[in-house]
Automatic annotation (TrEMBL):
PANTHER family: PTHR33178, STRESS-RESPONSE A_B BARREL DOMAIN-CONTAINING PROTEIN (PTHR33178:SF10). InterPro entries: Dabb (IPR013097), Dimeric_a/b-barrel (IPR011008), HS1/DABB1-like (IPR044662). Residues 1-74 form the Stress-response A/B barrel domain. This is Stress responsive A/B Barrel domain protein. Homodimer. SMART domains: Dabb (SM00886). It holds the Pfam family Dabb.
Length: 76
């Protein structure tokens, strides 16, 4: 998680990074154990993040450790 958070120092446009383990007692997590929320200053910065070399390298390093990932983008 420390390496994930470090992306905020490497990639322009990340204004906030939050994370934590699932602690819900409802049993509705469908096997997901952790959540990460990254806030970008704009959709353009989010789009740049997706193809940024540091992000892609992090994803490649993390993939062997993950069974599944759920990504949800929203805007206001």
């Amino acid at each position: 998680m420390r390496d994930f958070a470090r992306l905020a120092d490497l990639i322009e446009g990340i204004v906030d990074f939050e994370h934590g383990p699932n602690i819900s007692p409802e049993g509705l997590s469908k096997g997901y154990t952790h959540a990460v929320m990254i806030t970008f200053s704009s959709q353009a910065f989010r789009d740049a993040y997706l193809v940024h070399a540091a992000h892609l390298a992090f994803v490649d390093r993390l993939k062997p450790w993950l069974d599944e990932v759920l990504v949800f983008d929203y805007g206001i």
